[in-house]
UniProtKB/TrEMBL annotation:
Similarity section: Belongs to the xylose isomerase family.
Co-factor(s): Mg(2+)
Domain Xylose isomerase-like TIM barrel positions: 40-283
Protein name (database record): Xylose isomerase
GO annotation, biological process: D-xylose metabolic process
Length: 386
């Protein structure tokens, strides 16, 4: 019943299941997995697609002949399995050149190189059929304010995004650009730290319709923000282009935990929101197995992400169909026609009537029954209802 299938649109990055378990204190604990091997394993597990950074597939310094050979092998694996590559992204964080930013480096050589790398990644993605281009400005930030860069960075970032969108149009690639906010790590502070700040930036771009969000569970959670609300706002703006699912404890380093490993209730309401929102893009897991794991643990991790999603989806369906939940929600949203007639678009008559309004005292003393409603959610999650 909870078996992942391609129609569920689950995707993983080559860098996620391929994560070799390095951390700031310890070296790699797992061997690198070949991209074509990852494709076969993900297909076996029932995933829909695999996403990649340019360098996950084509390491820096690869010769054109080698590049062609790698691509041939990778495409063959995609053909054999039917796995898709819905999203690509440029690695703008590993190269030492990017230590003070890539698209917002103070050095125009570095900015130009970061842009060149982005255009080449768009070319690569187009060859693989990708339609979504993620921009994660992980190095676009600072530890030092003395440079005054915080005032200039927006302009450079905007310039680069405008250039990339124009290039995509010029080439007929048809990309939709998904911007991924994160508050910190690897920089002390990253510019554009939240879904809200990315949404505000999009309105200042030349082709705002081509830009949306790639929000990540861990990123809003690190900052102590509510990820469900962030996704709801992106949906409201018509800007949920992609999503990075994982888990995270608040105020910690970037943990990239298996989906549902930590915040089950928030994950439940996230799946509830996504599944009822009409979002039909990939459900991408940007997470990795714990450093304690060998390769067996990696595939257990990947399968776990997808199964938890499907279990929560089923629980969300049962919760929404529970007659007690429905009755509580009917009452919660009950709307008397009298005040409703005073709301909505402005008119001078409505303004007059509003000023004459007296709030019935019962509106102050009413209860909203949220304790009962929340307990029903908990009981569904604990498996004693539905
Ligand atoms: C992180 C980010 C990255 C990006 C990826 C795609 O915290 O490291 O989430 O994993 O999602 O680079 O742009
Ligand atoms: Mn992340
Ligand atoms: Mn991410």
């Amino acid at each position: 019943m909870y078996e992942p299938r391609p129609e569920h649109k689950f995707t993983f990055g080559l860098w996620t299941v391929g994560n070799i378990g390095r951390d700031p204190f310890g070296e790699a604990v797992r061997a690198r997995l070949e991209p074509d091997y990852v494709v076969h394993k993900l297909a076996e597990l029932g995933a829909y697609g695999v996403n990649l950074h340019d360098e996950d597939l084509i390491p820096r310094g690869t010769s054109p002949t080698e590049r062609a050979a790698i691509l041939r092998r990778f495409k063959k694996a995609l053909e054999e399995t039917g796995l898709k590559v819905p999203m690509v992204t440029a690695n703008l964080f590993s190269d030492p050149a990017f230590k003070d930013g890539a698209l917002t480096s103070p050095d125009p050589w570095v900015r130009a190189y970061a842009l060149k790398k982005s255009l080449e990644t768009m070319d690569l993605g187009a060859e693989l059929g990708a339609q979504i281009y993620v921009v994660w400005p992980g190095r676009e930030g600072a530890e030092v304010e003395a440079t005054g860069k915080a005032q200039k960075a927006w302009g450079w970032f905007r310039e680069a995004l405008n250039f990339m969108a124009a290039y995509s149009e010029d080439q007929g690639y048809g990309y939709r650009f998904a911007l991924e906010p994160k508050p910190n790590e690897p920089r002390g502070d990253i510019y554009l730290p939240t879904v809200g700040s990315m949404l505000a930036l999009i309105g200042t771009l030349e082709r705002p319709h081509l830009f949306g969000l790639n929000p990540e569970f861990a990123h809003e959670t690190m900052a102590g923000l509510n990820f469900v609300h962030a996704v709801a706002q992106a949906l409201d703006a018509g800007k949920l282009f992609h999503i990075d699912l994982n888990d995270q404890r608040m105020s910690r380093f970037d943990q990239d935990l298996r989906f549902g490993a930590e915040n089950l209730k928030a994950s439940f309401f996230l799946v509830d929101l996504l599944e009822h929102s009409g979002y039909d893009g990939p459900r991408h897991f940007d997470a990795h197995a714990l450093r304690t794991e060998d390769e067996v643990g990696v595939w257990a991790f990947a399968r776990g992400c997808m199964r938890t999603y499907l279990i929560l989806k089923e629980k969300a369906r049962a919760f929404r169909e529970d007659p007690e939940v429905k009755a509580l929600l009917d009452e919660y949203y009950r709307a008397d026609p009298e005040p409703l007639a005073l709301l909505g678009p402005y008119s001078p008559e409505k303004a007059q009537k509003l000023k004459a309004l007296t709030l019935p005292e019962v509106r102050r003393s009413r209860g909203y029954a949220l304790e009962a409603l929340d307990q029903l959610a908990v009981e569904h999650l604990l498996g004693v209802r539905g």
